[in-house]
Amino acid sequence: MLSKIKKTGLFLKLLMKYDISPTDLNDLLRTISIQKQHPLFEFCLSRADYTLDLSYCKSHPSKEFIYAGRGHHTIKPYRILGERKKRLFEKIFYTDSQDARANIAFYENHKEWLKNTDITIPRCKDIIIGEKFTAFLFEYLDLQPLYSGREYQSLKKATFSLCKGTERRKVADHTSYEKIVDGQARIKKLKIFSRQEMAIIKEYRKTMPVYFQHLDLKEENVFNGNVVVDWDNAGWHPMGMDFGRLLLSFYIFHKEQFYDKYLEEIYSFYDYIEDDIPFKPFHHTVLYYFIVFFYGHFCENNETKKFMNLIDTYKKKLSENRLV
């Protein structure tokens, strides 16, 4: 929480039309939210971006701050606007962020992209675009968490549904999802793979068909009824990213048996997909993205020895140009 002096200083900067950093703005808004000062919260937003039309706030006098979510390119905390059946979930992105662009593309095209899936999503009621910020207003759903003990199977169902329900594309999107970027950066820093090994992995990834993928199908984003939220990182990517994230979920929920069972899981992924791709590039790609997601999510790991054994086995098969 900001000190009173720093809060006053940041507030004065906004009044005088000075720019403040995203970190300072989020700290200021969070401090204001703790005091439940919605008018001041909205005033600071309007001073930070004069072009953002916040008139929708006036038609929803009942407001509530919520502190869920860890989005890197959003204004936090998020808010619930309105009462009862007319409640909306407000999520404000930085307009120039990949997350905002991904959400706009998704909600403009989701009916076509998800038409063959059984996935349910919150409806987007409105998108208000400003120079610095873009506000999304979603219908508020009373989301039910996944049943205890069934989390992994539910995540598997959502991943399979998305993979099987979308069609191929020829060109992949660029992704800046922080967990993949962070994981790849850590892999490079730790020199997990040699240049030759990365070249082999890259060639296998190139052979994978491009499908629409979520990239963050974890228990915080998937709910009972196959409801999936948070499409901030979704896009068209080579098959294997969502399966790599799913394999990380298998590690998280079944850590005791992971090292004995992970190969069976990858076979189950492969058996489910309806595509004519060979197993070898699929296996290479899924394992690579599992390692990337692992290093993107975990800075420290108390099972380093076992995990490094898995990587060593993977690297050996890369050098032998085989996986089984």
CATH class of the largest domain: Alpha Beta
* Helix/strand/pairing category: alpha+beta
For this structure, the quaternary state is single chain
Q: How many domain units? A: 2
Organism: Anditalea andensis
Pfam families: APH
Protein name: Aminoglycoside phosphotransferase domain-containing protein
Keywords for this structure?
324 residues, alpha+beta, Phosphorylase Kinase, domain 1, Aminoglycoside 3'-phosphotransferase, Chain: A, domain 2, five-stranded antiparallel sheet, 9 strands, 48% helix, globular, Aminoglycoside phosphotransferase domain-containing protein, Aminoglycoside_PTrfase, Kinase-like_dom_sf
Descriptive report:
The protein has 324 residues and is of the alpha+beta class. It has two domains: 4-139, Phosphorylase Kinase, domain 1; 151-319, Alpha-Beta Complex (Aminoglycoside 3'-phosphotransferase, Chain: A, domain 2). The protein contains eleven helices and nine strands. It has helices spanning 4-15, 22-34, 38-48, 98-113, 151-165, 178-190, 195-206, 241-253, 258-272, 279-297, 304-319, and strands at residues 63-66, 74-81, 88-94, 124-129, 133-139, 210-213, 222-223, 227-228, 235-238. The strands form three sheets. Strands 1-2-3-5-4 form a five-stranded antiparallel sheet, with helices on both faces. It has a two-stranded antiparallel ribbon with strand order 6-9. 30% of the residues are buried. The model has no long low-confidence stretch (mean pLDDT 90). This is Aminoglycoside phosphotransferase domain-containing protein. InterPro entries: Aminoglycoside_PTrfase, Kinase-like_dom_sf. Residues 190-263 form the Aminoglycoside phosphotransferase domain. It holds the Pfam family APH. It comes from Anditalea andensis.
